[in-house]
Structures are given as structure tokens and as C-alpha cells.
Amino acid sequence: MTIAAECLIMDQPPTSLPTCDAHAARRELPSPAFFRIRDVLRITGLSRPTLYRRIAMGRFPPPVHLGGRACGWPSAALQAWTADPEGYRATDAPERAANRSRHRGRPRKYAN
């Protein structure tokens, strides 16, 4: 049922749609603890490759593994990024960069 229909059912005139109880109830809903990839792409306006490129550079919060194949981004991390997208730096970016450089190239067995 749409909000307009809910307001009409509550016997409120259509001119008071923005202030009806249905709107107030929807505004007070808590945000989810984790956002999935589709939500993150919609919120940020970034493409999927750009999002993962920024994660690799430490310019976007990394996802949290929720179990199985599911992962999500904590709402607090997304709020920190949306507050300052250009100035955001992930807290563990240097550690990830060091780990990434150790595993590049050919395996040691073939390094000769």
C-alpha cells in the first residue's frame, strides 16, 4: 500500500501527505546494520569496478564477510565515507598494501 493510500485511510486530507503518520513512521525506521553491494552502488553512485578499485587503494571501506558468500558494508563505515569521500582513507590500507606486494608476480618456485 502506498503512503498516499495510508494517509487517505487515516482520514487525513491529501494536502497533509508529508506530515501524516505513515511518513513519520517510515522516517523513524532504523538503518540496516550492513548494506549489500546493490545498496552501496546506489548510495555512492560508483560503478562496481570503481568501488573495488577504491577499496584496493584504501579510498573506500572494505566489505565485511557475513558468512558463506555474503558480504556487506557496515553503515557506520559508509557514513564515514559519505561525510568526506575525497579525504577518506581506510585504517588498514598500509597493512593491506604490504600484504598485496608480497604475493605479486611468479611463485618462488619459478622465480629464477
Q: What report would you give on this structure?
A:
A three-stranded antiparallel sheet has the order 1-3-2. The chain is built from six helices and three strands, in the order ααβααββαα. The N and C termini lie far apart (68 Å). A hairpin with a 2-residue loop joins β2 and β3. Helix content is 46%, strand content 10%. The model has no long low-confidence stretch (mean pLDDT 76). By secondary structure, it is mainly α.
Number of helices: 6
Q: Main sheet: which strands, in order across?
A: 1-3-2
Rg to the nearest angstrom?
22 Å
What is the typical, i.e. mean, pLDDT?
A: 76
Hey, roughly how much beta strand do the residues contain?
5-15%
Pairing-aware structural class of the strands and helices?
mainly alpha
Q: Which secondary structure elements does this structure contain, and how are they paired or packed?
A:
Blueprint lengths: L2 H7 L11 H7 L6 E2 L1 H8 L3 H10 L6 E4 L2 E5 H9 L9 H10 L10
Antiparallel strand pairs: 1-3, 2-3
Descriptive keywords:
112 residues; three-stranded antiparallel sheet; 6 helices
In short:
With 112 residues, the protein is mainly alpha-helical. The chain has helices spanning 3-9, 21-27, 37-44, 48-57, 75-83, 93-102, and strands spanning 34-35, 64-67, 70-74.
